[in-house]
Amino acid sequence: MAKINEGYKIVFIGCGAMGEAILKGMLGGGLVKKEQVTAAVPTAKRQAYLQETYGIAVTGDNSAAVKEADLVILAVKPQMAKTAVDQALVDALPEKANILSIMGSYDLAMLHALVPGHPVIRSMPNTPLAVGMGMTALTADSQVSEETLELAEAIFRSCGETVRVDEKAMEAITAISGCGPGYFFVVMDALADAGVMAGLPRALAIKLAAQTMAGSGVMGLKTGLHPAQLRDQVTSPGGTTIAGIKALENHGVRGAFYDAVQAVLDRSAALKK
After folding, report:
1. What pTM did the predictor assign?
2. Is residue 155 over pLDDT 80?
3. In angstroms, rounded to a whole number, what is the distance separating the alpha carbons of residues 164 and 231?
4. Can you say how many angstroms the Cα of residue 41 is from the centroid of all Cα atoms in its chain?
C-alpha cells in the first residue's frame, strides 16, 4: 500500500454519501490522519456533521480549501461540477496538485477542460464503498505519476477493490459496476417479494435474499470459477433450481441485463452531447 506522509494534504470538493464512504475508509484504515484532510461542502449542517463525526477541517469556501492541497478529490455530482470548480478554485490550486474525480460522466478530456494544467485521475466507484465492499475502476492521464496512481488505489482499497483500466473501458464499467448495485437491489427486492408471496415474513425474505446474493458474489470472487460452473453446482438434473432457472430464462432475464447495460451506454452518450 502506498504511504502518505504527514505533510500530504487531501481536499474533498463535495462530500456526500460517496465522498463520505471514501473519507471513512481512509481514516478508518489509518491511511491518513484527520489533520491531513479538509472537506469543502456548501451547507452548515453538513459541515458540522463532518467535523463532529470525523474531526476533519471543513469549510464552505472551495477555493480556500484547495490552497495547500496535494490531492483534490472532486466528489460533487457531475451537473454541479462547473459551479463547484469555478475559476477562483482553479486559480487557487497549487501547481503540485493532482485531481482525482469520482464524477462518472466526466472523462479525462472534460476534466482537463475543468482543471487545466493538472494531472487527472478518473475513477468509477460504486455505492458498496459505504460498507467497505466497493469496486472502483481507475484511469489516468500520462501526467499522473506511478506514486500518485498507487495512492489513489490505496484510497479506494481502504473501502473495497480496485482495477486499473484504459479509459475506453470506463463507459462499460459504469454500466456494469457503477450502475450494477441498482440492478441487484431490484433483483433483491423482487426475490424478497417472491418470498413474501410464498408465505415468509418480509424481514426474513429480505435477509434471505440479501445474504444469498452477498454470499454468491463472494463465492464467485474467492473460487475464481466461471458463474456457469457455480450455477451447475447448485443445479441438479431435473431438480428444483433448474426449474426456477428455466422460468427466469422464459422471462428473458439475460436479455433484460443486456438491455440495461445498453440503456446506460446510450444514456451516457446522450449526456455528453
Report:
1. 0.91
2. yes
3. 29
4. 19
